[in-house]
Amino acid sequence: MSGMIKPVEWKETYVKVLDQTLLPEEVKFMEIRDAQVMWDAIKMLCVRGAPAIGVGAGYGVAIEMQKHVKESTTEYHKKLKETIEYLATSRPTAVNLFWALDRMKETGEKYADESNEVCQKALEETAINIEKYEENACISIGENALTLLKDGMTLLTHCNAGGLATVHYGTALSPMLLGKERNINFKVYADETRPLLQGARLTAWELNQAGVDVTVITDNMAGMVMKQGKIDAVIVGCDRVAANGDAANKIGTYSVAVLAKHHNIPFYIAGPVSTIDMNTPTGDDIPIEERSAEEITCGFGKRTVPEGVKVYNPAFDVVPHELITAIITDKGIIANPDKEKVAQVVNAK
């Protein structure tokens, strides 16, 4: 898609990262040259969204290891192991992070007996291929989603699962952006997405830039617009899908799924197969990140909670597979997902 801003981009001697904490008021890029700065960028949500986090982590390993090529092979591989383990501590819920780091680890092991220069080149190629996979997955997800949607539909989405969260069209936003290019037009309601307003700041910004008809609502308006008959389908992204089809996404998604079920509105999860974690049996086993109280008490510079009041701030919740109409992946659509159907798609050639 022409004019699309890439949130993470490999520049050979550094990684170019869009600082998403400044959107929509400022478009500013960071030049990342080591793993510690990449760790901070992921933790502080400068780079965010499950696929983009994985891409960023892969490049974080590659850029860090450039500094150690001249060391002994033993030291190089010791540092590689430490870097991968370090980046894995940045955020716990999005499985793409660990998927990408596992690819980097496998590459390091495969080239352990080669020179550092050969291993380094292989690591950089692996990181680039991770980005290419996620980019192609976005297109496939959009294509598959369009088979479920019709021109003129009004869609509701929660949080941000567009190009800013991936490396191309996005997951949940992919059919909207692909559709726009093909004269298939949707109206979109974007939940504001408390407490960090990813829907209002990022989704609305992306869709508006692309010329998609988008309306922002606060999270607690979703039920009302459904009751008014304004929503034809809900489509959201995901940070991890368990083996049985339960799906973790930004906090508030579970509420949207329950509301959709009550109003007989299709509820779709969109995500690449890399987001499916077959080692996590159910949604109850997905680790849920808890973030700082300050994101709620004074998230945008003004205190809105009295001093001394306790705060609970989980970043994600889990939608049980029973509430999911279908999971839209790059390998196909999993209708009424369960353990057998999820495994079938994951294992497909």
UniProtKB/TrEMBL annotation:
Substrate binds at residues 48-50, 91, 198, 249-250. GO terms for molecular function: S-methyl-5-thioribose-1-phosphate isomerase activity. The active site is at residue 239. The record marks 159 as: Transition state stabilizer. Its EC number is 5.3.1.23. Keywords: Amino-acid biosynthesis, Isomerase, Methionine biosynthesis. The keyword Amino-acid biosynthesis applies. InterPro entries: IF-2B-related (IPR000649), IF-M1Pi (IPR005251), IF_2B-like_C (IPR042529), Initiation_fac_2B_a/b/d (IPR011559), M1Pi_N (IPR027363), NagB/RpiA_transferase-like (IPR037171). Pathway: Amino-acid biosynthesis; L-methionine biosynthesis via salvage pathway; L-methionine from S-methyl-5-thio-alpha-D-ribose 1-phosphate: step 1/6. It comes from the Bacteria. It catalyses: 5-(methylsulfanyl)-alpha-D-ribose 1-phosphate = 5-(methylsulfanyl)-D-ribulose 1-phosphate. Belongs to the EIF-2B alpha/beta/delta subunits family. MtnA subfamily. Catalyzes the interconversion of methylthioribose-1-phosphate (MTR-1-P) into methylthioribulose-1-phosphate (MTRu-1-P). This is Methylthioribose-1-phosphate isomerase. The lineage of its organism: Bacteria, Bacillati, Bacillota, Clostridia, Eubacteriales.
